[in-house]
Amino acid sequence: MKETKASTREDYASRILRVLVYIQEHLEEAPALERLAALAHFSPFHFHRVFRGMVGESVGAHVRRLRLERAAVRLKTSSDPVTEIAFEAGYESHEAFTRAFGSHFGRSPSAFRSAERASPELPAPSRVHFSPGRPGAGFHPLAAEAFPMEAKLRRLEPMRVAFLRHVGPYDEVGSTWERLTDWAGAQCLFGSDTRFFGAAFDDPEITEARRLRYDACMTVDASVRAEGDIGVRTLPGGRYVVALHEGPYSTLGETYAALFGRWFAAQPFDPEPGPTLEFYLNDPDSTDPEDLLTEVCVRIQE
Predict the structure, then answer these.
(1) Which of 12, 14, 76, 176 could disulfide-link to 166, CB 3.0 to 4.6 Å?
(2) Number of other residues whose CB lies within 10 A of the CB of residue 145
(3) Which residues, including other chains, have CB under 8 Å from residue 85's CB and lie 6 or more apart?
């Protein structure tokens, strides 16, 4: 009986995960209940209950929260007009958006932007490195004496990945990685060209810790299929700003503070809404924390 219950939970998790991925990739659309229920292979009546039970909020509340949190990121990282951001979030008027935003974040969009866009005091630089941009790529590095960092632009090709989702504090993703690698080992999926990376969807200064979304990802070939709550999907390619962080994962926040707090503010482009990718270049089980290398990749608007 226990195996049957566990199997049912995994099946439900797999079906709801398809819906969550669909929603985050179609956040501009008004999700039709029938479409989402069909995607999860539930009747509309049961789908509502299963989604709320597994996600902890209704479909409508989930979509509204993601849209408001995405709007908060745009307010924080771009100079786009508040009205434009309101329309993108699904609100037909500035006033309606302001009410909803204030209810969720406790301050108006303008007050939020003013506070978040204020020049932050960054921590003393740790070993965070950037490589020079390609000549003629439209990239303008800051002077070293003003901001001792450079960056490189890189185009990432689409990647087919197996992934396992973690919802909760980012510093608790270890067990998710263990489950993914145990599954991959049993499937003999490790190869010399396998890449391991995390996809972090939310800003921990905007989204509460218990709702942070993180996908532990590894590249796979076309023969690999989803299994249980381990999904398989193709991530789109694009143009990214890449920073190399050297040091423990616990100090990755310094890299993010530098990128979003200072670097983007001096560039002619903005970050694209979507996950930040963290490519782990060496094995944390056999590498001293101070020698860990992580590429932080932020997609930019083209």
Answers:
(1) 176
(2) 6
(3) 71, 74, 75, 97, 109
Q: How far apart are the C-alpha atoms of 84 and 68, rounded to whole Å?
A: 13
Q: Is the model's pLDDT at 32 over the cut of 60?
A: yes
Comparing 85-89, 117-121, 182-186, which segment has the lowest mean pLDDT?
A: 117-121
Domains defined along the chain, listed by start = 2-117 (1.10.10.60), 152-299 (3.20.80.10)
Average pLDDT across the chain, whole number: 85
Candidates 79, 243, 218, 283; CA nearest to 153 is 243
**Rounded mean pLDDT, 3-25:** 83
Residue 97 phi/psi, 5-degree rounding, is: -65, -45
Residue 209 has which token pair?
């810790």
Q: Are 36 and 62 in contact (CB under 8 A)?
A: no
Its pTM stands at: 0.81
